[in-house]
Amino acid sequence: MPVTIRQVGPCFAGQVSGIDMTKPLSPAEASAVHAGMDKYAVLVFHDQAIDDDQQLAFTTSLGDIEHAIGTSLRAAHEYRLPNTFADVSNLDQDNKPFAREDRRRLFAIGNRLWHSDSSFKVVPAKYSLLHARSVPAKGGNTEFAYMPAAYDALDAETKAEIEDLICEHSQIYSRRLIGFTEFTEEERARFKPVRQSLVRRHPITGRKSLYLSSHAGSIVGWPEPEALCLLRDLVEHATQREFTFAHKWRVGDLVMWDNRQTMHRARPFPAEEPRDMRRTTLMGEGPTAAQAAA
Predict the structure, then answer these.
(1) 88-138: per-residue pLDDT in tens?
(2) Which listed residue, 37, 42, 56, 82, has the most CB atoms within 10 A of its CB?
(3) Phi, psi at 55, each rounded to 5°
(4) Distances (CA, A) of 264 to 16, 87, 116
(5) Residues whose CB is less than 8 angstroms from the CB of residue 104 and which lie 6 or more positions away in sequence, other chains included
């Protein structure tokens, strides 16, 4: 069956037919997926009854894996999954939902803010691939914002102002926005800010886009209040309805997105209900900005 993609979002996002992830991905299929990602930025695959090994095999058919190490507040003995997966579920190592006041759960609530995966790493993520193993009875959708269209819609004066700006990104910044401020010294060192360009160009399409995230908490050389006001204005601009798409999950869905072209956020769901979501991630091509000297 040939691979076909039908657009489902207002200016991006496609639904894919003709891919069975229980089988090895052929070179032609891999090329079709990459081309679809370049064009649509978000791809939705329904009815993928796959296990961890099959998800990992599909992911590595498309590029080099990014390991999920030190990006959450789970201790090493609390992991449910190997570090080839980012565990974005609300489940502990016994597959039970975290208690409402659990520190690990409260930290993860930061995923409800608009963000780009791994923007807090020197080399940020390329693709994220999220597979739904169990979903709550209500809520828990994922929303996406298409950053090339948001950039294109800016006026010329704003484009000139932001062209060469560099932001600092850290999970400490994003968690501060939701009132989570209690970090250990080890965690503060681990989440040390990194620098990312505010405007980036896609290596294949050549389109410029805004590189925004709740992890962005400062602009190099700007006073903090002025920087935060600009970033807030840009996020509000980029998340208008004409630039966004919402995915309502069902079990077996796999959704992949290009972090170079999108922001996303999870929506609330009942805390006592399990939401088992497993993410594999592909590494990006390199830093978007030079890092400050140590």
Answers:
(1) 999 999 999 999 999 999 999 999 999 999 999 999 999 999 999 999 999
(2) 42
(3) -65, -45
(4) 19, 17, 7
(5) 72, 73, 74, 78, 92, 98
- Residue 256 CB burial class (10 angstroms; 0-12, 13-18, ≥19): buried
Q: The tokens of 207 are what?
A: 């389109």
Owner of token pair 């989570």: 180
> What number of helices (H) and strands (E) belong to the chain?
8, 15
Amino acid, single-letter form, for residue 246: A
What is the set of domains in the chain, with CATH numbers? Answer: 4-283 (3.60.130.10)
Q: In this structure, which long-range contacts are made by residues 216-219, counting pairs with CB atoms below 8 Å and at least 24 apart in sequence?
A: 216/119, 216/167, 216/168, 216/169, 216/173, 217/167, 217/168, 217/169, 217/170, 217/172, 217/173, 217/174, 217/176, 217/193, 218/167, 218/168, 218/173, 218/193, 219/165, 219/166, 219/167, 219/168
Residue 133, SS3 per DSSP: strand
Residue 119 tokens read as: 């923007």
Q: Which two tokens stand for residue 90?
A: 């609300």
Q: Where are the beta strands (DSSP E) in 92-198?
A: 125-134, 142-146, 166-169, 194-197
| Token representation of residue 217 | 């908490």
Enter the pTM of the model.
Answer: 0.96
Q: What is the rounded CA–CA span in Å between residue 281 and residue 82?
A: 13
Amino acid 52 reads: D
